[in-house]
Amino acid sequence: MFKRLKNDLALLSGALRTLRMMKPIMLNKSRTFPDVISELAEKYGDRPALISDKESFSYRGLDERANRYARWAMANGVGKGDVVALLMLNRAEYMAFWLGVTRAGGVVALLNTNLTGQSLGFCVDIVAPKHVVVGSELLGNFDTARSLLKTAPKIWAHGAGGSDARINEAVETFSPTALSPGEKPSITIEDRALFIYTSGTTGMPKAANINHYRLMAMTHGFCGVMNIKPDDRMYDVLPMYHSNGGVLATGAVLMGGGRTYIREKFSAREFWDDAVRVEATLVFYIGELCRYLLHAPQSPSEQKHKIRLFCGNGLRADVWPAFQARFAIPKILEWYAATEGNVAVFNWDGTPGAVGRIPSWMEKRFVVKIVRFDIEKEEPVRGPDGLVIEAEPGETGEAIGRIVADPNKPANRFEGYADKSATEKKILRDVVEKGDMWFRTGDLLRKDKDGYFYFVDRIGDTFRWKGENVSTIEVAQALTDYPGVEDAIAYGVEVPGQDGRAGMVTLVTTKEFDLKGFEEHVAQRLPDYARPVFLRQSSEIDVTGTFKQRRLELQKEGFDPAKVTDALYFRDAASGAFQSLDAGLRTRICEGQIRP
């Protein structure tokens, strides 16, 4: 009872603090985040705001730099709603740029810095920008897509290199003073501000609409979530083309008067030394970052830091306790949300493995449901009345959030994507009543009787085998417990003549790994249907820029020795032993001579 009361108080305190920070947003719909930055510049002046290796800005300096970019945008034909795409590595200038262009009424598309060729060209074309600004270090990447573009934006380089116009030189010719009333465009929180792309782990990225309200909600809300104060220092190692690294780790900290130290790229080896050097009190994480740190060699600095809070999402239940204990982290605040959606839950009390909690007494205020889901058809299950069936406590289903077309409740809206057909696919109709609309997260979660939400898998990653649903995350967690397994990713692969998908796992192993002992571990830890049929040993697992593992490429390569140079194994169903898989064995499996 005492623990429940304590957890309820943590939830209530955090939620009220967050709502209090967000309350002013709706009082003046013409006040956007670039306006807030000007207010903060007046309040904090020369106090440090953003610090990076290439440049640093005070609050006043950031505001003035944004003014220069706003005037550059207007002088180059960027009007209200016009798009400018940005391809730049992490640095303080990154935020100054998008603040300036959005202050001018423009929309900034934040391009993934890891993309090249067709994928990069697709991301540019889908938002049809007037201009593309490319950091000099990424001109080579951009050149692989330049000839593939179907649109014709003007290309600007930031820094030396190439024959494109130099935006860093052009912007210096514009005044840093505040925009006059005559210069300022008429924009409100309803207008679009950014395009932030989905990670593209299951196909081409989608450009999510981020309007000025959502930008305000993210920055104001997370200032409350993290309880940021002027003496807080964020150490930001996440890519700034995503909301965690580019909006929350920067904008939310500025809202509280703190400062953010921006690193160009994450380094597990240098992480703790950096955190100690900058006297970081806050870190934004995604789960894979924590796992990398946990697997890194011990650092003399790893418990000398002043970090009070790790805030983020995707921290696995098997990593959480060990991570928190080894690095002496006072508090971990895990949460779950979609950048473009209306579903958000927070784990205020730090229960390991939970992504959030909505107790029964708060369900009317935060309308999030878990609905029964058919894995094979990849759609929610409906009852005889045509409405969707809600999942029972503990039952896995898709998380959805009710879409409310009420101008006074913008948090319940779904702004969608640049591609209207992609937007439509994310809307689920006739759920609780005929005609209602709900946002589909595309994620499988379960909710227990106490209101805690647990992430299970991405839809499309969970697969059916032997008539049972197999969670790739639960399989991977079971296998990473075995000595010598540094990383594991599980996925389903098609086998000719077999229903469903057979389980396959790619492992990154050390010299400590023993295949015989691993066979016993698999038999002990997993039910028969969840045990991997195929095993691939690799030196590393490729990940996206946000460290999300790329299942799609691994699934395409499957268990074909002609496509895979890594060692492959097949688990004999009778003995449970893994045997080397060559082309001949693969043929016998595919022809049905050997049943998996």
TrEMBL record:
UniProt topology in membrane: Multi-pass membrane protein
The family database entries (SUPFAM superfamilies) matched by this protein are listed as: Acetyl-CoA synthetase-like (SSF56801)
Q: Does the keyword Membrane apply?
A: yes
Single biological process term from Gene Ontology: long-chain fatty acid import into cell
State any GO CC term: plasma membrane
Q: Which domain of life is it from?
A: Bacteria
List, in alphabetical order, the Gene Ontology terms for molecular function in this entry. Answer: ATP binding; long-chain fatty acid transmembrane transporter activity; long-chain fatty acid-CoA ligase activity
* Keywords, comma-separated and alphabetical: ATP-binding, Cell membrane, Ligase, Lipid transport, Membrane, Nucleotide-binding, Peroxisome, Transmembrane, Transmembrane helix, Transport
What PANTHER family does the database record attribute to this sequence? Answer: FATTY ACID TRANSPORT PROTEIN 3, ISOFORM A, LONG-CHAIN FATTY ACID TRANSPORT PROTEIN
What family is it from? Belongs to the ATP-dependent AMP-binding enzyme family.
Q: What is this protein called?
A: Long-chain-acyl-CoA synthetase
Species name? Terrihabitans soli
Its taxonomic path starts at: Bacteria, Pseudomonadati, Pseudomonadota, Alphaproteobacteria, Hyphomicrobiales
